[in-house]
Structure formats: C-alpha cells, structure tokens
Design a protein that fits this description.
This protein is α+β, with helices and mostly antiparallel strands and 333 residues long. Helices cover 55% and strands 7% of the residues. Helix 1 (5-20) packs parallel to helix 3 (47-61), helix 10 (209-224) crosses helix 14 and helix 11 packs across helix 14.
C-alpha cells in the first residue's frame, strides 16, 4: 500500500479542480517550481514536493479559497478500509480517535494532535517545516478535509465548532465561512479546530459496531505492517479478518494467495503456526471485541463467527480464555 494515499489522491483532485476552474494542467506544469515534480513515472510524490505544488496552484488561480475547496473534494470511500472504519464508528468522538491512531497508514505527511480543553477537544496539526504560507496551506487542506468528512458522516452541518487560523484576515473571509459553514477566527496563536463535546457525541448515520471491529482490526494490521507478502501467517490473518465471519477454508485461502494448499500448510508450519491456529486466533480476537464493545447476544456472536450452534462457540471461547463468554462480558476491561 502506498504510504501517501491521501496526498497522491489530493494531487489528482487538484488537477481536476484546476480544469474545473478553467486552467489547464500544462499551466501548472510550466510553473518553474513545479517542473519535473509531476512525472508520470513517479509512484508517489514527496511531501515537500506536494506542498510546492499546492502553493503553485494557489498562486496560479489567485484564489485563496482554492485550498479549502480542494480539501472538500475528499472522498471517504477512496480511503478504503480506513474510510469504512470511519463510517462504521458510533459517533464523531470514536471517528476522531480512529483518525489520530491510524492516519499514518494512508499518509506520512503532517499529523494531527489533540488536546483536551474544558468543553471538548482542540485539534491541531503538527507541522514544523515550511514557510508560514505553506503551513497555512497544509492546515487549511487538512481542516477542510476533517470538516467535510464529519459532515458526511453525520449527514448534517457541524454546529458548535470553531476554526482558528494564525494568518491575517483575508479579503475573502466571508467565502471561507460559507465554504466551511463554521465560524472562523483569524490572527490566532494557533491553527486549530475547536470541537465541543456535544459535537463529538453526534451519532454517525452509518454506525455499525460489528463491522467497525472488523475494519479496525484491518487498520491495526496495516499499522503494524502485518500484511507483508513474505509473511504467510499475516496474510492468512488479514484474509480471515476481511471475511468478517464467513471464514474461507484453507483451500480457498490458498487460492487467494496463489499457492497450493500443501504449500500454504508448509509455510505456516515454518512460521510455527497452522491454519486452524490462526482461525482460532481471529475468532477469539473478534469474539472478545464483540463482547466488550457491542450488546450482541451470545447466539448472534456465535453466528457471526461461523459457529452452527452457540454451545460450540461457548466451548471454544472457554477453551481459549478459561472463562465463559457471559463471565468475560461482565468482567471490567
């Protein structure tokens, strides 16, 4: 997986937005600072080069709101597993925690950092390099993306948030507020988004605790680098988690990995494990998460984990954890 999925996608959307605004890609390519940075042979673009391209686009269009509009072009579905994990969160607070933990699986650029305050959270961008103007551009892109995604997740305007920018008041200040639909204060000490607790608790319209667990486990694997092609046990684990309960058998998994069933068994043995062991690990992982984070019945969890009878699930769970599912659920975690 590319380590700059968000950034690379932004560059494509930047070109499309330029065309929409009446500019040709060639006009951007001819900007001296950009020449050679957008080669078709490049798989990904360096962070510093991307910022140069963003700055050149703003100067070319002479439109200070261009960057905010670019941020709003973010398509959550294009984020793959991470996007689906966000969509399945229960509320915006859960989505923010997921964003802070897993954003690096998509992009190695500036990161977010959050600080609690009396009635909510301050969301800031951790960026030390670049000119003040470049830092402003990156802040506007990232905050515009966050606000746009939040609106999409709850299917309504964000009421109560406030954006602070440490730049002078632009002549297009009114356009800024119209685009983001939240109050904006300029000449502030920090670039930050203030998110009240009431907003954080807003329910996400596509919330699904069952699929959220599955997608978060996939994100965790990506974060830890467990999906390396040379690691067969990690590849099997990833496929089983992705299956979400309808577990494929070893023959089906081997086909997906383009090896024979015998080869897969041998490689797993060399990694000191087996297909049955990994299946049980994944089932136990999902079972404990379902018990901790959902109100699903034991029978429903058993069905999700591909057990024909709840009693079979209870026996397996007791064997793995030395306790029953009901007792595990009642224990503080």
């Amino acid at each position: 997986m590319s380590k700059n999925i968000i950034q690379d996608d932004l560059i494509k959307k930047l070109i499309a937005l330029l065309v929409k605004d009446g500019f040709s890609p060639e006009q951007l390519y001819k900007v001296p600072a950009v020449k050679g940075l957008l080669s078709t042979q490049q798989e990904t673009i360096k962070e510093s080069d991307a910022i140069t391209i963003f700055e050149a686009a703003v100067n070319l269009t002479n439109d200070p709101t261009f960057i905010l509009r670019l941020g709003q072009e973010m398509d959550i579905v294009s984020l793959g597993t991470f996007g689906f994990a966000l969509m399945s969160c229960g509320n915006l607070h859960e989505a923010l925690k997921l964003l802070l933990r897993y954003r690096t699986i998509l992009d190695q650029g500036p990161s977010f950092e959050s600080t609690k305050y009396s009635d909510g959270i301050l969301l800031r961008i951790n960026m030390k390099l670049g000119t003040a103007f470049q830092q402003r551009i990156v802040s506007e892109i990232m905050f515009s993306q966050v606000i746009s995604i939040a609106k999409f997740l709850i299917n309504q305007e964000i009421v109560g948030c406030e954006l602070h920018l440490n730049c002078s008041v632009p002549t297009e200040a009114e356009s800024y507020q119209q685009l983001l639909s939240i109050p904006i204060k300029f000449n502030q000490p920090h670039n930050q988004l203030i998110i009240p607790e009431s907003v954080m608790l807003t329910r996400i319209r596509t919330a699904n605790p069952v699929t959220n667990i599955i997608f978060q486990q996939q994100c965790e694997e990506l974060l830890r680098g467990l999906n390396r092609v040379e690691d067969f046990s990690a590849a099997v684990r990833r496929l089983l988690i992705h299956a979400g309960g309808e577990f494929p058998n070893i023959k089906q998994v081997a086909e997906k990995l383009f090896v024979s069933e015998r080869t897969l068994s041998r490689r797993l043995f060399m990694e000191s494990t087996s297909f049955r062991t990994i299946c049980n690990e994944v089932r136990n992982l999902l079972a404990t998460q379902y018990l901790i984070t959902t109100e699903l019945t034991i029978a429903e969890i058993a069905a999700l984990l591909d057990y024909g009878e709840p009693v079979s699930f209870r026996r397996a769970f007791a064997r793995w954890n030395k306790t029953t599912p009901s007792a595990f659920r009642q224990t503080p975690h």
